[in-house]
């Protein structure tokens, strides 16, 4: 018997398998499916926990992967947006700069109408490279009719005078330069003096008699003496005043320039001395 | 035996989770058939038939097929492939592909016939042409590649 089984084991195993499968199908087809359901349940129960685990892992992996992809996309978008913001900021900066420049130039052009003389608006392209002098370089020169000793002003007041001229640029000596000297007068009392620069950048009013009426806050304007600067250009205001008692004949006056030389960007060169007195904003004409 | 169980478990998971994502035009590869084929070329026909029965049962339990449908089909295919593998060189990719293709087609045909027998009339020709044939080719291509990556003449676990 055993020998017979061994001899036909292949056929036997196949037949058993096929028969079992056929019986299972038949049972289902007949609607008698309790055995089939039990078998199916056992098979599913044996595999479903693994399916759940793997499906979950797969989902987690997929989620992580998708999030990684999303993050990469977000990173790319972020870079693009940052670049866009940078460009827009640069654009906004340029526009702001243009607006400020426009405002300054408008101010200067209004002044042009007031002073009644031909002017050249120039851009400051450089400042003195040493600590010993106070001068600026402007982008207009002989090509625009600029000559030495022409007065340079801003809407606030006197800046200085042209000292060197090249074809395309000029150097302007500021009134705060230690070598500078401008004939001035105290607007209120009409006392005459000379505004000289100093090493520290302030202006000292020299040669004001001890008895001259000078008070802190007094406005100082050009006196028109010397032939370089027209009369009436605002120069500075008095910030310190003292009368030495050591036998000196003159007062010691320190003044603060109206123009802010540290932030000069555009200036005007007065090409001729005005025929009439200058009229600055908020400035009353000298009597 | 343990290797077989692990392989069966792995294939169940792959077939349930990965294979649907590999579907082309709604046709997915039959990883159970590939497993059975790989096993059948390494073991005798009786073991291949028994393994086919078990693999088929699991395939049935994971699908909407009546229990026993794939068990029947795969038992027969396992037996036949194992018998044929003694005659031809299944280590050669061309033969392997051809045998896998034939196994797939036979599986499709038997399944269709059984379904026709138990569940009424089915469009035999169109189902064979548009489902069984592409499925068999897809399974054969994938199976040839997968089995080619395994060492030839590898016996599967302790079944031998």
Instruction: Report the span from N to C terminus of chain A.
Output: 147 Å
Give the CA-based shape of chain A.
rod-shaped
CATH topology of chain B: Arp2/3 complex 21 kDa subunit ARPC3
What spatial order of strands do you see in the largest sheet of chain A?
A: 1-2-5-4-3-12
CATH topology of the domain at 116-270 in chain A: Thrombin, subunit H
Radius of gyration of chain B: 15 Å
The CATH class label of chain B is Mainly Alpha
Radius of gyration of chain A over all CA atoms, rounded: 47 Å
Oligomer: heterodimer
Sheet of most strands of chain A: 6 strands, antiparallel, barrel
H-E order of chain A: HHHEEEEEEEEEEEE
Give a verbal description of the structure.
The complex is a heterodimer of chains A (287) and B (160). Chain A has 287 residues and is an alpha+beta fold. Chain A has a domain at 116-270: Beta Barrel (Thrombin, subunit H), CATH 2.40.10.340. Chain A has helices spanning 2-7, 9-30, 34-115, and strands spanning 119-127, 135-138, 151-153, 158-165, 170-174, 181-186, 192-197, 203-206, 219-222, 234-242, 252-257, 266-270. In chain A, the strands form two sheets. Chain A has a six-stranded antiparallel barrel with strand order 1-2-5-4-3-12. In chain A, strands 6-7-8-11-10-9 form a six-stranded antiparallel β-barrel. In chain A, a hairpin with a 5-residue loop joins strand 7 (192-197) and strand 8 (203-206). The longest helix of chain A is centred in the N-terminal third of the chain and has 82 residues, at 34-115. Chain A is rod-shaped and about 150 Å long. Chain B is an all-alpha fold and 160 residues long. Chain B is built from six helices and no strands. Chain A binds chain B through residues 9-10, 12-14, 17-18, 20-26, 28-29, 36, 39-40, 43-44, 47, 50-51, 54-55, 58, and chain B through 9, 12-13, 16-17, 44-47, 49-50, 52-53, 56-58, 60-62, 66-69, 71-72, 75-76, 79, 114, 118-119.
């Amino acid at each position: 018997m055993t020998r017979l089984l061994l001899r036909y084991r292949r056929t036997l195993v196949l037949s058993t398998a096929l028969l079992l499968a056929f019986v299972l199908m038949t049972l289902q087809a007949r609607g008698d499916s309790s055995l089939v359901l039990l078998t199916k349940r056992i098979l599913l129960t044996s595999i479903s926990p693994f399916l759940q685990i793997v499906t979950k892992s797969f989902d987690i992996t997929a989620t992580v992967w998708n999030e990684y992809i999303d993050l990469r996309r977000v990173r790319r978008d972020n870079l693009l947006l940052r670049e866009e913001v940078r460009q827009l900021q640069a654009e906004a900066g340029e526009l702001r700069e243009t607006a400020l420049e426009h405002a300054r130039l408008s101010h200067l052009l209004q002044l042009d109408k007031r002073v009644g003389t031909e002017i050249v608006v120039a851009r400051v392209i450089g400042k003195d490279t040493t600590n010993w002098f106070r001068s600026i370089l402007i982008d207009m020169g002989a090509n625009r009719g600029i000559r030495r000793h022409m007065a340079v002003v801003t809407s606030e007041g006197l800046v200085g005078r042209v000292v060197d001229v090249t074809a395309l640029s000029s150097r302007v000596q500021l009134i705060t330069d230690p070598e500078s000297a401008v004939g001035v007068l105290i607007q209120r009392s009409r006392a005459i003096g000379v505004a000289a620069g100093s090493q520290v950048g302030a202006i000292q009013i020299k040669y004001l008699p001890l008895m001259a009426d000078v008070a802190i806050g007094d406005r100082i304007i050009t006196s028109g003496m010397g032939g370089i600067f027209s009369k009436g250009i605002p120069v500075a205001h008095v910030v310190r005043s003292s009368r030495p008692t050591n036998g000196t004949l003159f007062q010691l006056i320190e003044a603060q320039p109206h123009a802010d030389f540290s932030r000069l960007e555009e200036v005007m060169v007065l090409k001729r001395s005005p025929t009439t007195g200058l009229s600055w904003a908020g400035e009353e004409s000298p009597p | 035996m343990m290797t077989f169980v692990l392989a069966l478990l792995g294939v169940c998971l792959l077939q349930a989770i990965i294979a649907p994502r590999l579907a082309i035009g709604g046709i997915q590869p039959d990883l159970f058939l590939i497993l059975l084929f790989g096993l059948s070329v390494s073991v005798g026909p009786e073991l291949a038939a028994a393994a086919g029965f078990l693999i088929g049962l699991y395939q049935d339990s994971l699908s909407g097929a009546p229990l026993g449908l794939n068990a029947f089909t795969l038992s027969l295919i396992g037996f036949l492939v194992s018998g044929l593998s003694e005659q031809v060189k299944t280590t050669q990719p061309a033969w392997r592909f051809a045998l896998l293709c034939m196994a797939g087609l036979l599986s499709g045909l038997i399944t269709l016939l059984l379904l026709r027998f138990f569940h009424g009339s089915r469009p035999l020709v169109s189902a064979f042409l548009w489902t069984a044939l592409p499925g068999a080719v897809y399974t054969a291509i994938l199976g040839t590649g997968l089995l080619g990556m395994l060492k030839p003449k590898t016996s599967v676990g302790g079944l031998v």
